[in-house]
Amino acid sequence: MKKPQERIPLTGKQIKFLRGLGHHLDHSVIVGREGVSDNLVQSCADGLQAHELIKIRLGQNCPLTKDEAARLLADRTGAHLVQLIGKTVVLYRENPDLPPDLGIHLPR
Fold this sequence. Notes:
Number of strands: 4
Number of helices: 3
Structural class: alpha+beta
Oligomer: single chain
Shape: globular
Distance between the termini: 30 Å
Number of domains: 1
CATH class: Alpha Beta
Order of helices and strands: HEHEHEE
Largest sheet: 4 strands, mixed
Helix content: 25-40%
CATH topology: Translation Initiation Factor IF3
Strand order of the largest sheet: 1-2-4-3
Strand content: 15-25%
């Protein structure tokens, strides 16, 4: 996996917008007893590359606290932690290579 790009901070308005989009997503990745493994990080990175916004479920057997797991996933994928509610994490990472009609257009 290549080194993540520098993250430009999101505004409150942008985070609120992304939370709204994330609400309707299904969980694309589930963190199990192996925690934040290299394979899990790669799955998240692939999901972010394809969709820019993903929802992750922290399973009952996850060895990390939800805060640790969320921060570690965001750091290792180079994504923004948009939301952590219960055991659900929403991550966002812009993909400038997506066609304009498929990418997420953040409000200013």
